[in-house]
Amino acid sequence: MGGDHGPSVVVPAAALALVRHPGMRFILVGDEGQIRSELAAHPALADKSELIHTDVAIAMDAKPSQALRQGRWKSSMWLAIEAVRDGHADAVVSAGNTGALMVMAKFCLKTIKGVDRPAIAAIWPTIDAECIVLDVGANVGADSRQLVEFALMGAGMARALFGMEKPSVGLLNIGVEEVKGVEEIKGAAAVLKDLPLPIRYHGFIEGDDIGRGTVDVVVTDGFTGNIALKTAEGTAKQIGEYLRAAMGRSLLARLGAVLAQGAFRALKEKMDPRQMNGGIFLGLNGIVVKSHGGTDATGFASAVDLAYEMASSGVVKRLGSDVADFHTKLELEGAA
Amino acid sequence: MGGDHGPSVVVPAAALALVRHPGMRFILVGDEGQIRSELAAHPALADKSELIHTDVAIAMDAKPSQALRQGRWKSSMWLAIEAVRDGHADAVVSAGNTGALMVMAKFCLKTIKGVDRPAIAAIWPTIDAECIVLDVGANVGADSRQLVEFALMGAGMARALFGMEKPSVGLLNIGVEEVKGVEEIKGAAAVLKDLPLPIRYHGFIEGDDIGRGTVDVVVTDGFTGNIALKTAEGTAKQIGEYLRAAMGRSLLARLGAVLAQGAFRALKEKMDPRQMNGGIFLGLNGIVVKSHGGTDATGFASAVDLAYEMASSGVVKRLGSDVADFHTKLELEGAA
């Protein structure tokens, strides 16, 4: 029921994702009448879907604490998360209120043992591939220990999604020299440098290293990460506008644009934020994917795809064992 | 002497800037031999330049405190700043060590009365125009009062450079709702909302609002601002790569690119980071412009142009009276 458009986006999106992954099954939670009327146009999806009806939906502008108080046990958001907790679903995807989704997911699924606070991870396109950036908005600020946990979680996700053994990890900072940056980041660097875990610690990176693909996993606090993510989205949109304006300026440019339209289409697809739609909540006992609230069916379907990949990859187990391993080693060091 | 290339970039850059602003005069500070051999190729510049020789240059990797200790009174950086303090120059431009430049400029020029800490401002291209973003790296973190001072300084700069009466000001945050964000930002918002100064306070903005041009002045702390700036630069470069790859993909695309090459050239110019080269130190009794260390003559010349515009605009006086006005009003409020 979440996002700006509710079932009118979610249902067609599920239908799109089903075409790509015919083995998927769906549990659609929300107002049965609205969902059924959308499902009517998608019989293949209807065959693969189970409905859970509820009248209660979390408002997009509800405060997280208020959402938890009013929406627990009965809202569509809660019931969808609960389906993951109870093993009826492998992942939950929502376009609803981010803060409410995080609070409810934490309350219902609980954090993985050893994880202090969950983070939201984004898959960020780079020049040649992709990297994982976290936290992009779950928490404002993060201490050294949390940054290290983010590094472990991001690396676990990179191992599971990208199939790499030893992902490289960088700490986002305002200079690459060791002396720069805030205490929390320096503290995390000191721990990561000596960590006997399947991570290649790269060191500090700067904002322009994200898109350059300098590392596989970019670690930062949720405030900085969110602003970096939105700034990059804004810049991409801005350059798209420049390009459009430049290509319409002269007859020759317009003719050139017509000839190159296949190339422009490929570029547009590569720059399309809908292809990268989906923030992954990491550190919980279950997979939760948050879609942009304002996206369309194409965008929401990307978030569903992402949930599917995450569920198929066994990433939650992987994270759990990595974090446990880290804490065991920390304790051993403490005891030594 | 600063930057990756020293006089071999600075001297040709000054020559470029002189062509655009024939009324300029230069004081070139550094190794006389090196400067003279560069000047030989630029007789028009030589006519307009005065040389100050010194053997001491601040290393690009010197710590600020160490640079101040070793370079005070005698380094090229110091002597150039001193020329501003003593009224021999209207502005100083350096491609040297940022931290050292800030520390020396503070020590030599002193901050404007009422300003707690100077900030570095960047001029950021938007879809239709430009905006000012500060702080982009002078300080890590900023309290409410400092953020308000940044707002005043940025607005003063917008008035002077863009010729607008009441610039709009936004606080960079991770959500536009009033409840979001860190305490410092909320505190600044509370003050800015009721400020009887020539500012249009817009409210919170998000990362994608910067390039969209939602406000004339974007206020943030130096850590976040620096990461946003570098992330945007990285994204622009990344999309340039995508574009190049897309245009080389097929014969038709290559043909289209040839026809549209005028448009691509205009686009490239618009996206060229050298056009926007120059961080302005705000809040000092004098104009200090920091160029990227790795830039070429075109880029350094942009920084010189910027210094020229700033000096012609009377911005320092404007800032001084705005900040004084603000503090008077605060005191009156405190007394009332």
Description:
The structure is a homodimer of 336-residue chains. With 336 residues, chain A is α/β, with parallel strands linked by helices. Chain A is 53% helix and 14% strand. Chain A contains 14 helices and 10 strands. Chain A has helices at 7-20, 32-39, 43-47, 64-71, 76-85, 98-109, 144-162, 183-193, 207-212, 222-248, 251-259, 261-271, 297-313, 315-335; strands at residues 26-30, 49-53, 91-94, 119-125, 130-134, 168-172, 200-205, 217-219, 279-282, 287-290. The first copy, chain A, has an 8-stranded mixed sheet with strand order 3-10-9-4-5-8-6-7, sandwiched between helices. In chain A, strands 1-2 form a two-stranded parallel sheet. In chain A, strand 4 (119-125) and strand 5 (130-134) form a beta hairpin. Chain A is globular and about 60 Å long. The model of chain A has no long low-confidence stretch (mean pLDDT 90).
Mean pLDDT across residues of chain A: 90
> From the helix content, strand content and strand pairing of chain A, which structural class follows?
alpha/beta
**Overall shape of chain A:** globular
Count of distinct strands of chain A: 10
| Share of β-strand residues of chain A | 5-15%
